[in-house]
Protein backbone atom coordinates (compact mmCIF):
# COMPACT_ATOMS: atom_id res chain seq x y z
CA UNK A 1 0.00 0.00 0.00
CA UNK A 2 1.23 3.41 -0.87
CA UNK A 3 -0.03 6.32 1.22
CA UNK A 4 0.53 9.90 0.30
CA UNK A 5 -0.51 12.74 2.56
CA UNK A 6 -1.16 16.11 0.99
CA UNK A 7 -0.05 19.29 2.70
CA UNK A 8 -2.22 19.99 4.23
CA UNK A 9 -25.21 16.66 -14.41
CA UNK A 10 -24.72 18.50 -16.96
CA UNK A 11 -25.61 18.29 -20.64
CA UNK A 12 -22.54 16.23 -21.42
CA UNK A 13 -23.80 13.26 -19.44
CA UNK A 14 -27.07 11.58 -18.73
CA UNK A 15 -27.83 9.87 -15.44
CA UNK A 16 -29.63 6.58 -15.18
CA UNK A 17 -31.26 5.72 -11.86
CA UNK A 18 -31.23 2.00 -11.17
CA UNK A 19 -32.41 0.96 -7.71
CA UNK A 20 -30.23 2.84 -5.21
CA UNK A 21 -27.31 3.44 -7.58
CA UNK A 22 -26.91 6.32 -10.02
CA UNK A 23 -24.57 5.51 -12.90
CA UNK A 24 -23.16 8.21 -15.12
CA UNK A 25 -23.39 7.13 -18.73
CA UNK A 26 -21.09 9.28 -20.87
CA UNK A 27 -22.01 10.31 -24.36
CA UNK A 28 -19.55 9.80 -27.21
CA UNK A 29 -16.60 12.26 -27.17
CA UNK A 30 -17.83 14.08 -30.26
CA UNK A 31 -21.35 14.56 -28.88
CA UNK A 32 -19.93 15.56 -25.52
CA UNK A 33 -17.81 18.30 -27.12
CA UNK A 34 -20.81 19.65 -29.00
CA UNK A 35 -22.92 19.59 -25.87
CA UNK A 36 -20.19 21.34 -23.93
CA UNK A 37 -19.88 24.07 -26.54
CA UNK A 38 -23.63 24.60 -26.61
CA UNK A 39 -23.82 24.78 -22.84
CA UNK A 40 -20.97 27.25 -22.51
CA UNK A 41 -22.42 29.45 -25.24
CA UNK A 42 -25.81 29.48 -23.57
CA UNK A 43 -24.91 30.55 -20.04
CA UNK A 44 -21.12 30.85 -19.86
CA UNK A 45 -20.99 28.75 -16.68
CA UNK A 46 -18.44 26.09 -15.86
CA UNK A 47 -19.54 22.53 -16.55
CA UNK A 48 -19.25 19.87 -13.86
CA UNK A 49 -18.47 16.55 -15.52
CA UNK A 50 -18.37 13.39 -13.34
CA UNK A 51 -15.79 10.69 -14.06
CA UNK A 52 -16.78 7.58 -15.99
CA UNK A 53 -19.05 5.23 -14.02
CA UNK A 54 -19.42 7.71 -11.17
CA UNK A 55 -21.96 6.84 -8.48
CA UNK A 56 -22.64 7.27 -4.79
CA UNK A 57 -22.05 4.07 -2.81
CA UNK A 58 -23.19 5.40 0.57
CA UNK A 59 -23.08 8.57 2.60
CA UNK A 60 -19.56 9.94 2.15
CA UNK A 61 -18.45 7.14 -0.21
CA UNK A 62 -18.29 7.41 -4.00
CA UNK A 63 -16.97 5.24 -6.84
CA UNK A 64 -15.83 5.91 -10.39
CA UNK A 65 -13.42 5.21 -13.19
CA UNK A 66 -10.13 7.11 -13.45
CA UNK A 67 -10.79 10.86 -13.12
CA UNK A 68 -9.02 13.21 -15.51
CA UNK A 69 -8.61 16.98 -15.54
CA UNK A 70 -12.07 17.48 -17.04
CA UNK A 71 -13.54 15.96 -13.87
CA UNK A 72 -11.64 18.03 -11.30
CA UNK A 73 -14.26 20.78 -10.99
CA UNK A 74 -16.93 18.17 -10.30
CA UNK A 75 -14.77 16.36 -7.72
CA UNK A 76 -14.26 19.64 -5.88
CA UNK A 77 -18.00 19.79 -5.25
CA UNK A 78 -17.75 16.53 -3.27
CA UNK A 79 -15.37 17.98 -0.67
CA UNK A 80 -13.24 14.84 -0.75
CA UNK A 81 -10.82 14.04 2.06
CA UNK A 82 -9.44 10.85 0.52
CA UNK A 83 -9.09 8.88 -2.71
CA UNK A 84 -8.54 5.12 -2.86
CA UNK A 85 -6.64 4.27 -6.05
CA UNK A 86 -6.66 0.57 -6.94
CA UNK A 87 -4.13 0.47 -9.82
CA UNK A 88 -0.36 -0.21 -9.56
CA UNK A 89 0.64 2.57 -11.98
CA UNK A 90 2.01 5.86 -10.66
CA UNK A 91 -0.66 8.48 -10.11
CA UNK A 92 -0.46 11.18 -12.83
CA UNK A 93 1.20 14.45 -11.92
CA UNK A 94 -1.91 16.50 -12.74
CA UNK A 95 -3.99 14.34 -10.39
CA UNK A 96 -1.37 14.62 -7.64
CA UNK A 97 -1.40 18.40 -7.98
CA UNK A 98 -5.18 18.37 -7.69
CA UNK A 99 -4.94 16.33 -4.48
CA UNK A 100 -2.35 18.66 -2.98
CA UNK A 101 -4.25 21.82 -3.81
CA UNK A 102 -7.43 20.40 -2.27
CA UNK A 103 -5.95 18.70 0.80
CA UNK A 104 -6.92 15.20 -0.31
CA UNK A 105 -5.09 12.06 0.88
CA UNK A 106 -4.18 9.36 -1.62
CA UNK A 107 -4.34 5.70 -0.55
CA UNK A 108 -2.90 3.50 -3.30
CA UNK A 109 -3.52 -0.25 -3.36
CA UNK A 110 -1.86 -1.62 -6.49
CA UNK A 111 -4.02 -4.43 -7.85
CA UNK A 112 -3.00 -5.68 -11.30
CA UNK A 113 -5.71 -5.53 -13.94
CA UNK A 114 -5.49 -9.10 -15.24
CA UNK A 115 -8.04 -10.58 -17.61
CA UNK A 116 -9.75 -13.93 -17.17
CA UNK A 117 -8.71 -16.69 -16.75
CA UNK A 118 -5.60 -15.18 -15.10
CA UNK A 119 -7.37 -12.99 -12.56
CA UNK A 120 -5.71 -12.95 -9.14
CA UNK A 121 -7.47 -10.70 -6.63
CA UNK A 122 -5.30 -10.20 -3.50
CA UNK A 123 -7.63 -10.65 -0.53
CA UNK A 124 -5.28 -8.95 1.94
CA UNK A 125 -5.14 -5.85 -0.27
CA UNK A 126 -8.93 -5.69 -0.47
CA UNK A 127 -9.08 -5.92 3.34
CA UNK A 128 -6.64 -3.04 3.74
CA UNK A 129 -8.64 -0.94 1.30
CA UNK A 130 -11.85 -1.71 3.21
CA UNK A 131 -10.26 -0.54 6.46
CA UNK A 132 -9.69 2.85 4.84
CA UNK A 133 -13.28 2.90 3.54
CA UNK A 134 -14.70 2.05 6.97
CA UNK A 135 -12.78 4.81 8.74
CA UNK A 136 -15.16 7.77 8.66
CA UNK A 137 -12.23 10.10 9.27
CA UNK A 138 -11.38 9.51 5.60
CA UNK A 139 -14.83 10.58 4.36
CA UNK A 140 -15.90 11.91 1.92
CA UNK A 141 -13.96 9.33 -0.08
CA UNK A 142 -13.72 8.25 -3.73
CA UNK A 143 -12.82 4.69 -4.76
CA UNK A 144 -11.55 4.27 -8.31
CA UNK A 145 -9.53 2.07 -10.63
CA UNK A 146 -9.26 2.47 -14.40
CA UNK A 147 -12.85 1.93 -15.56
CA UNK A 148 -14.61 1.68 -12.22
CA UNK A 149 -15.78 -1.85 -13.01
CA UNK A 150 -13.74 -4.80 -11.73
CA UNK A 151 -11.32 -3.73 -8.99
CA UNK A 152 -13.65 -1.03 -7.71
CA UNK A 153 -16.57 -3.46 -8.05
CA UNK A 154 -14.82 -6.04 -5.87
CA UNK A 155 -14.08 -3.52 -3.10
CA UNK A 156 -17.67 -2.26 -3.13
CA UNK A 157 -19.03 -5.81 -3.28
CA UNK A 158 -17.04 -6.83 -0.20
CA UNK A 159 -18.24 -3.68 1.56
CA UNK A 160 -21.80 -4.78 0.80
CA UNK A 161 -21.11 -8.14 2.47
CA UNK A 162 -20.09 -6.24 5.60
CA UNK A 163 -23.37 -4.35 5.29
CA UNK A 164 -25.15 -7.73 5.17
CA UNK A 165 -26.47 -7.41 1.63
CA UNK A 166 -27.61 -10.69 0.07
CA UNK A 167 -25.42 -12.05 -2.73
CA UNK A 168 -28.02 -11.49 -5.45
CA UNK A 169 -28.12 -7.75 -4.65
CA UNK A 170 -24.31 -7.57 -4.50
CA UNK A 171 -23.99 -9.26 -7.91
CA UNK A 172 -26.75 -7.10 -9.39
CA UNK A 173 -24.91 -3.92 -8.37
CA UNK A 174 -21.59 -5.28 -9.69
CA UNK A 175 -23.15 -6.20 -13.03
CA UNK A 176 -24.67 -2.74 -13.53
CA UNK A 177 -21.19 -1.28 -13.74
CA UNK A 178 -19.32 -4.20 -15.35
CA UNK A 179 -22.13 -4.89 -17.86
CA UNK A 180 -20.81 -7.09 -20.69
CA UNK A 181 -17.40 -7.14 -18.99
CA UNK A 182 -18.70 -8.87 -15.84
CA UNK A 183 -16.33 -11.56 -14.59
CA UNK A 184 -17.29 -14.82 -12.94
CA UNK A 185 -13.98 -14.70 -11.04
CA UNK A 186 -14.87 -11.34 -9.46
CA UNK A 187 -18.25 -12.60 -8.33
CA UNK A 188 -16.73 -15.81 -7.00
CA UNK A 189 -14.22 -13.73 -5.03
CA UNK A 190 -17.00 -11.64 -3.46
CA UNK A 191 -18.99 -14.76 -2.63
CA UNK A 192 -16.05 -16.39 -0.82
CA UNK A 193 -14.73 -13.23 0.84
CA UNK A 194 -14.67 -13.80 4.61
CA UNK A 195 -15.90 -10.77 6.53
CA UNK A 196 -15.69 -12.41 9.96
CA UNK A 197 -12.29 -10.87 10.74
CA UNK A 198 -13.65 -7.38 10.02
CA UNK A 199 -16.90 -7.48 11.96
CA UNK A 200 -15.29 -5.66 14.88
CA UNK A 201 -14.81 -2.58 12.73
CA UNK A 202 -17.52 0.12 12.99
CA UNK A 203 -19.99 0.28 10.12
CA UNK A 204 -22.22 3.34 10.39
CA UNK A 205 -23.50 3.81 6.86
CA UNK A 206 -27.03 4.35 5.65
CA UNK A 207 -27.40 1.34 3.33
CA UNK A 208 -29.19 -1.44 5.20
CA UNK A 209 -29.53 -5.14 4.50
CA UNK A 210 -30.85 -5.75 0.99
TrEMBL record:
Superkingdom assignment: Eukaryota
Example of a GO cellular component annotation carried by this entry: cytoplasm
CDD domains: PFA-DSP_Siw14
EC number: 3.6.1.52
Gene Ontology MF annotations: inositol-1,5-bisdiphosphate-2,3,4,6-tetrakisphosphate 5-diphosphatase activity; inositol-5-diphosphate-1,2,3,4,6-pentakisphosphate diphosphatase activity; phosphatase activity
Catalytically driven reaction(s): 6-diphospho-1D-myo-inositol pentakisphosphate + H2O = 1D-myo-inositol hexakisphosphate + phosphate + H(+); 1,5-bis(diphospho)-1D-myo-inositol 2,3,4,6-tetrakisphosphate + H2O = 1-diphospho-1D-myo-inositol 2,3,4,5,6-pentakisphosphate + phosphate + 2 H(+); 3,5-bis(diphospho)-1D-myo-inositol 1,2,4,6-tetrakisphosphate + H2O = 3-diphospho-1D-myo-inositol 1,2,4,5,6-pentakisphosphate + phosphate + 2 H(+); 5-diphospho-1D-myo-inositol 1,2,3,4,6-pentakisphosphate + H2O = 1D-myo-inositol hexakisphosphate + phosphate + H(+)
Domain Tyrosine-protein phosphatase: 53-207
Keyword Cytoplasm annotated: no
Keywords: Hydrolase
Presence of the UniProt keyword Hydrolase in the record: yes
Assigned protein family: Belongs to the protein-tyrosine phosphatase family. Atypical dual-specificity phosphatase Siw14-like subfamily.
Name of the featured protein: diphosphoinositol-polyphosphate diphosphatase
